[in-house]
Amino acid sequence: MRVATPVLLCADDDRHLRILSNRERINARVQMRIRIVLQAAQGMQDKDIAAQFNIDRRVVARWRARFLAAGVDGLLQDATRTGRPRTAREEANVEQVIRSTRKETPEGSTRWSTRTMAAHCGVSASTVARIWRAHGLRPHRVKSFKPANAPRSAEKLEDIVNLFLNPPEQALVLCCDEKMQIQALDRTQPDLPLNSRRSGAITLFAALDMLSGEVISMTDRLHRHPQWLRFLQSIHRQTPKNKQLHLIVDHYAMHKHCAVMAWLAKHPRFHLHFTPNHFSWLNLVERFFQDISDELMHRGAFTSVPAVESAINTYIAAHNANPKPFTWTAATAGDILGKATRTRRSTADPQP
């Protein structure tokens, strides 16, 4: 007579299984498996356990073997199934969907949807979704930042990251930018969406101190080099004269206007550091602008430009009363460049 392999439980496994078997919120299938193993540990044979629980003997044998091979964890999850192998036609469909997603764009649109790709490849939309999910394709999303290919991009990136990681002594690192077209929009009634009545727009100039989190700001209805120059003069007045000033800015034309550069030449404590193209997210003041949008502008109602200016000034005053610096979490410039390289490789065609 064939005898089943005995099950020997250590004290920890026995206690764990008994706790699980008495737990109310547990899958009934898992509870049955646990009870099978507990009975097997008492020396009962498969046919006797099957008769006790009114199940097939092969089921008992299967879970006895699973426990002996994988322990308690083997009882808590179903066995994986290989499923039906793909046919040659299905393999061709997968390759066509991947190739079309990476190399082609739909006519009259800029990106694929599951329905347009399904019509293009002659498969179902659910098949397209399954292939995209299996291969990590998300044509509806930008997977990462756009890699910078302009000259000296790596040098500029390393320069700015080093400012964040090792700020110079006796100096201030100021992240500067402008939030443009801040609209004065009003609601017709409280708690209703904004109506289309616009009362004007302003630009917010801001310089975020990287170490302290404090913000120097200025608002104006125009966004040209005279306003940027006036903002630089404001920074000059509001910062200690014995401090060098390292300003992180983008490549906007007014930041490099001849009148601005002439003024900077007369004030050598100012040092401009330009972010690489497509790396504007390096500038930490962008995170501050997001907070203003979310916390102030998103639900605000403003009847005039002075009302917007007053609200912004009040918000910044409250922020400066208890400033909190944004923490730079990226390790080095090399890590960021490595991520950009991996992004280019992942979006390229796979090698044959």
Task: Output the helix-strand order.
Answer: HHHHHHHHEEEHEHEHHH
Counting H and I runs of at least 4 residues, what is the number of helices? 13
Q: According to CATH, what is the class of the largest domain?
A: Alpha Beta
Tell me the strand order in the biggest sheet. 3-2-1-4-5
Secondary-structure-derived class: alpha/beta
The largest pleated sheet is described as: 5 strands, mixed
**Span between termini:** 56 Å
Regions with little confidence, pLDDT below 50 for 5+ residues: 192-197, 347-352
CATH architecture descriptor name of the largest domain: 2-Layer Sandwich
Radius of gyration: 32 Å
Tally of strands: 5
The fourth-level CATH homologous superfamily of the largest domain is Ribonuclease H-like superfamily/Ribonuclease H
How much strand? 5-15%
Pfam families: DDE_3, HTH_32
Domain Tc1-like transposase DDE: 195-305
Protein name: IS630 family transposase
InterPro entries: Homeodomain-like_sf, RNaseH-like_sf, RNaseH_sf, Tc1-like_DDE_dom, Transpos_IS630-like
Descriptive overview:
With 352 residues, this protein is an alpha/beta fold. The chain has three domains: 11-76; 88-135; 153-336, Ribonuclease H-like superfamily/Ribonuclease H (Nucleotidyltransferase, domain 5), CATH 3.30.420.10. Helix content is 48%, strand content 14%. It contains 13 helices and five strands. The chain has a five-stranded mixed beta sheet. It is elongated. This is IS630 family transposase. Residues 195-305 form the Tc1-like transposase DDE domain.
